[in-house]
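User: I've been trying to design a sequence by hand for this structure and keep getting stuck. Would you show me what you'd pick, starting by listing the structure so we're on the same page?

Assistant: Good idea, let's start from the same input. This is the structure you sent:
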């Protein structure tokens, strides 16, 4: 939601637009409880003449005592904003996608400046030419320890070999981790017309597992074959991934990143199908 940082900044300056509503609701609850308690007391004192000085019953004539009998803690409480902070520590995932304004939202909620930040420059759809140190210093962090992941446990080396070529065309210094296993299955290239036969053969040979077709919005998902766009596949993994016309995912950085991300969703086999 691109407008979220602007809405948050306006809320910080102008206040929570819901605060007055919550205050009115609370006052209405207190007034209703006061009216109910007055009714209870009046029924106790009905037809009874007691001077205010005559012990506890007499004190019930006083408004202060009546008010003290209202247990405001038992009334509906204002729901706290659980995302307002402050927080002692924040974990940020997919950090490569955050804008400067979104970072400011997080910094405002974490005065300690204590973050665990997880991100991959190679998966930044809008480009990430800076180093992590440069990026984090620019948004206001000054104590930075960077640890790079160099081992890929998910993606077979056959898939990574082709995916690496894709991402290095737009980000030559991308951190592409080294796969530690082989899938013993080469990346298959074919025609879009082969889609049904590819899926049928895989399903027949594998009693378990999930496949995903990426890049064909007309493909109807089934219980074992998902259908996703490249951007929605980020963060997921599938035993078989079938890409449909990956060159149509886009041009420049965004297109290359979408192709790289989609290719690396495969944990066992990758098939790339193109139109004639």
């Amino acid at each position: 939601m691109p407008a979220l940082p602007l809405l948050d900044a306006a809320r910080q300056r102008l206040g929570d637009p819901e605060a007055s509503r919550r205050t009115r609701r609370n006052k209405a609850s207190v007034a209703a409880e006061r009216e109910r308690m007055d009714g209870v007391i009046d029924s106790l004192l009905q037809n009874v003449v007691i001077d205010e000085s005559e012990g506890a019953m007499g004190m019930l004539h006083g408004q202060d005592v009546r008010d003290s009998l209202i247990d405001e803690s038992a009334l509906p409480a204002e729901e706290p904003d659980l995302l307002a902070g402050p927080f002692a520590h924040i974990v940020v995932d997919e950090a490569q996608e955050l804008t400067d304004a979104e970072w400011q939202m997080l910094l405002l909620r974490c005065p300690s400046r204590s973050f665990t930040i997880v991100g991959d420059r190679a998966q930044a759809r809008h480009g990430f030419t800076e180093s992590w140190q440069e990026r984090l210093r620019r948004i206001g962090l000054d104590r930075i320890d960077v640890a790079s992941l160099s081992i890929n446990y998910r993606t077979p080396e056959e898939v990574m070999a082709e995916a690496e070529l894709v991402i290095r065309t737009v980000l030559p210094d991308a951190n592409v981790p080294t796969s530690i296993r082989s899938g013993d299955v080469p990346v298959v290239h074919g025609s879009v017309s082969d889609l049904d036969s590819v899926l049928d053969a895989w399903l027949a040979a594998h009693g378990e597992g999930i496949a995903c077709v990426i890049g064909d919005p007309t493909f109807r998902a089934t219980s074992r074959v998902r259908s996703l766009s490249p951007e929605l596949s980020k963060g997921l993994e599938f035993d078989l991934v079938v890409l449909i016309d990956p060159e149509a995912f886009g041009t420049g950085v965004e297109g290359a990143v979408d192709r790289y991300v989609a290719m690396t969703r495969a944990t066992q086999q990758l098939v790339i199908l193109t139109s004639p």
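That's my pick for every position. To get oriented when you compare it with your attempt: Strands lie at 90-92, 115-117, 151-152, 178-179, 188-191, 211-214, 225-228, 238-244, 266-274. Residues 234 and 261 are 6 Å apart (CA to CA).
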